[in-house]
Every structure is written in structure tokens, then in C-alpha cells.
Amino acid sequence: MDIGIPTNVRHVSHVTFDRFRGFLGLPVEFEPEVPTRVPSASANVFGVSTESMQLSYDSRGNSVPAILLLMQRHLFALGGLQAEGIFRITGDNSQVEYVREQLNRGVVPEEIDAHCLAGLIKAWFRELPSGVLDSLDPQQVMQCETEEQCTQLARLLPPTEYALLDWAINLMADVVQQEHLNKMNARNIAVVFAPNMTQMADPLTALVYSVQVMNFLKTLISKTLREREYSMVEPTGASYLEPFDDDGDQRPSIACITYTQKDNEEKETAFIAQEPLRASFRNYSQNNETVDGEEHSPIPSVYKQISAEDTPTPARNNDIGESSNSSPGNKINPYLLLTKPKEYAT
């Protein structure tokens, strides 16, 4: 028996899903079972495309799934950055499944283990329909050796994947900055994240490739840490951000804006104060001595190079798409040469 076409149809409501505001036009009687602000248009937040997920802006201005920011916020609140073996130690399986079900509703249960939440962050990346780095040529990833090469390769990612990679790299950098407590250095955190960033059908090929992905991630983490060191920027999600609002967004605090302006003024003053010193190097370099027909100068060669350079530009805090380290062809920044970088705690 054939089923006929419906003859009595009524258009009750029109509901759309906005990736930043959730469901729009949802009837009131549906709200108890279908909250307006759900983390995804589908029933799950794991194993679905980011195109169907609610987005929010992170502290760096990237639009990432709100569920990631929700898990990140609770991970920090639970002291996850200080937990030994975070992202390496797995949580209790029964608790992981329960928390996964709650996250599908956009809720993080109270009294959960930080290792459980960290494991679900890795699972979120692992269960994506396609890996974050799958659009990159594996041969190019294997050939990356320097920070500049890794940075240039990361720029080839589509905007969504680039935002996810940037978010993940900064989260891993946050973990490494607490290495003295959690025992997770750049290599350790890169090792546990690498298998979750790509998907390959052949297990042997995936194992070999994950080693190259690990080196790729480790290089970007080290670069991010050094840029934070030079710019004196607090870790992502730390003191210079206001608490998350009801929409899952974070905004820079007034203290952050004031600090940045004051810091810039201090840097400008420092460069003005150094100018007479630079001039004295130029004058002093003219008093060279000639011994046995050769010219000798008591000024160390590094200061000659500084005196010959133009006024330096302070180092900037770039994202992973911009490299701040000096290459052989770039001018040496005397502000970095004359400043001893702060060493990390071991």
C-alpha cells in the first residue's frame, strides 16, 4: 500500500539555528525540553561538524565552538592546569560517559574530575568528522623543521581549522606554563594531543604521522611560550579577562586595557632614555686604534651593530600566524639583546 501525500498541513512555527545565538523562534512549549541556547543544533556535541555548533569568541578573537570554551572554563576552575599528568591521565570511564551526556545538553556537572574533563576535550577533537590538520599535506608536515616553516604551514589551514588549532595551541601553552606542578612539558602535551588532530585509516601510517604532528605542535607551543615571555602576556583565560557571561563569551577587562596602555608608555620612555647611549656608541666607534696597519676598536662588535641600526621596534605579541623570532636576515633588536629573558621554573 502506498502512502499518500499529506492533505491537512499547518505551519505552526519557523525555527532557525543561529550559530552565535542558538535557536530563534522556538515555541514556548518546546523550551523545557529544547533550551534556546544549546551547544549544537544536533543532539550531540561530539562527532559532529563545527558548522552545526554554537560559536563564541575566545580571548584572542577567534570564533570557536562554545562547548570548548565551557569545558576550558571549568577545567581552569577545577585547577586542571596544576593537576599532575593533566591530559595524559585518563578519567574514570563511568564518569566520562555521564559527563559526555550532560555536555550534549550544554551542562557541566559539579564535582567532576579535572582529568575527566581534559579527556573529553581530547575526545572532542578526536571525534570530529575530519581532523583539524587533515587539510594539510602530510609531506609538508613531515618536512617542517623550523618555527617559520610551521607558522607558514599553519596559515594554509581553513579559517575554522586555524581557529581550532590556535585555541588548542594556547591551551597546551597554558598547561606547559605550569610544568613545575603538572609535570607536562611541551613535548609531553604535544604527544598526547597529536593523535587527536588527524585521522588516517591505516594504523601504521597514523602512528608514523603522529610523530611528525607531535613535532609540529611542539614547535608552535614553544613559539607561543616565547612570545608570551617577551610580551609579558598572561595565559589564555587568566587574570586579564572578565568572567564568562551568559552567552559563553569573554571580554578584556578594564584592567587589561589600562595595563596595556601603561606598558606601551613605559616602553616608549625606555627607548627615549636609551638614545643618548646609542649616540655615545656612534661617537666612540670613531676613535679606532690602528695597530700594525690594522684597525682595532675597543667596542664589542655587538654594540657596533646596535649603533648602526635604526631605532628598534619593540617585540609584539603575535598569533601563531606571525613569527616574532629573528632570522639571520632580520635586524637584531637591541631591546632583546640587552634584556635578559626570564627563565621558566623547572
UniProtKB/TrEMBL annotation:
<protein>
    <submittedName>
        <fullName>Uncharacterized protein</fullName>
    </submittedName>
</protein>
<dbReference type="InterPro" id="IPR000198">
    <property type="entry name" value="RhoGAP_dom"/>
</dbReference>
<dbReference type="InterPro" id="IPR000095">
    <property type="entry name" value="CRIB_dom"/>
</dbReference>
<feature type="domain" description="CRIB">
    <location>
        <begin position="3"/>
        <end position="16"/>
    </location>
</feature>
<feature type="compositionally biased region" description="Polar residues">
    <location>
        <begin position="308"/>
        <end position="330"/>
    </location>
</feature>
<dbReference type="Pfam" id="PF00786">
    <property type="entry name" value="PBD"/>
</dbReference>
<feature type="domain" description="Rho-GAP">
    <location>
        <begin position="48"/>
        <end position="228"/>
    </location>
</feature>
<feature type="region of interest" description="Disordered">
    <location>
        <begin position="304"/>
        <end position="346"/>
    </location>
</feature>
<dbReference type="GO" id="GO:0007165">
    <property type="term" value="P:signal transduction"/>
</dbReference>
<dbReference type="Pfam" id="PF00620">
    <property type="entry name" value="RhoGAP"/>
</dbReference>
<dbReference type="GO" id="GO:0005096">
    <property type="term" value="F:GTPase activator activity"/>
</dbReference>
<dbReference type="InterPro" id="IPR044785">
    <property type="entry name" value="RopGAP1-5"/>
</dbReference>
<dbReference type="InterPro" id="IPR008936">
    <property type="entry name" value="Rho_GTPase_activation_prot"/>
</dbReference>
<keyword id="KW-0343">GTPase activation</keyword>
